[in-house]
Write a sequence for this structure.
């Protein structure tokens, strides 16, 4: 019997300050992060997920959560974390409408994979999101998802800071990024571990998303067709793409730790990322 567990890689992207690091920590460890730092590069957390739990097909998988820094100053270099990718979580701040609008830009950036500044010259370099150029204006998220066939989940953070008198209905309007991508959407408070505790509606959505990511990875492997997802096999044909060895795994409660180099960040990254 094999002592390895397969893994999938999921990107968490969104504007700087939306709470990606807190969200990543909550998903991986089931607890809130009291003092998150700022991202330089990418932070990686690993979660053990039971694929199709409760069915004859149940199987453990490691979910690698790549929390990519949202600072514009790293825009030209962060594309190194975009491939290979099996799934994408788009993260926005429910109190900041602009962060939701900018999710379209993040999808475009991942699609281009070049990491180059594709915005028009002459725009304000201090602005984290500049006017779209013609190529970005023509970018259709729905067309991208259909072509890449990559599972997407949209997550809104800081639900606890939303004024009860003005619920964030504006981000759920028709034509929003979740609807365009055919993706489910979760709103939550990352400081409350109960937000995605077992048995809740949001926990079911998250588990269902992980299952979709795994299914897509299995289809890609079984058919040998690498058009699904985002893959750069030439750049990433390294040991870090191999499954984890069970002899290097220790589990305590909801937290899973590994001696694999992907956990410690062999891709030049710093911990505690927003």
């Amino acid at each position: 019997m094999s002592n390895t567990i397969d893994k999938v890689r999921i990107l968490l992207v969104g504007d700087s300050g939306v709470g990606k690091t807190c969200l990543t920590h909550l998903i991986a460890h089931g607890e809130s992060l009291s003092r998150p730092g700022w991202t330089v590069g990418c932070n990686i957390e690993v979660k053990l997920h039971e694929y199709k739990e409760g069915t004859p097909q149940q199987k453990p998988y490691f979910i690698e959560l790549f929390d990519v820094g949202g600072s514009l100053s790293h825009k030209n270099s962060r594309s190194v974390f975009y491939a290979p990718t099996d799934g994408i979580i788009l993260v926005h701040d429910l109190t900041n409408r602009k962060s939701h609008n900018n999710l379209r830009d993040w999808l475009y950036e991942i699609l281009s994979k070049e990491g180059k500044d594709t915005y028009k010259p002459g725009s304000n370099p201090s602005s984290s999101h500049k006017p779209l150029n013609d190529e970005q204006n023509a970018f259709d998220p729905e067309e991208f998802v259909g072509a890449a066939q990559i599972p997407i989940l949209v997550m809104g953070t800081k639900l606890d800071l939303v004024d009860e008198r003005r619920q964030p209905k504006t981000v759920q309007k028709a034509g929003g990024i979740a609807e365009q991508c055919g993706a489910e959407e979760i709103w939550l408070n990352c400081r409350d571990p109960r937000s995605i505790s077992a048995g809740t509606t949001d926990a079911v959505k998250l588990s269902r998303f992980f299952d979709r990511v795994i299914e897509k990875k299995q289809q890609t492997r079984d058919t040998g067709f690498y058009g699904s997802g985002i893959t750069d096999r030439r750049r990433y044909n390294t040991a870090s793409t191999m499954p984890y060895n069970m002899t290097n795994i220790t589990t305590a409660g909801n937290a899973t730790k590994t001696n694999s180099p992907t956990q410690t960040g062999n891709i030049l990254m710093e911990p505690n990322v927003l």
The first strand starts at residue 4 and ends at 5. Residues 114-131, 233-241, 246-274 have pLDDT under 50 and may be disordered.
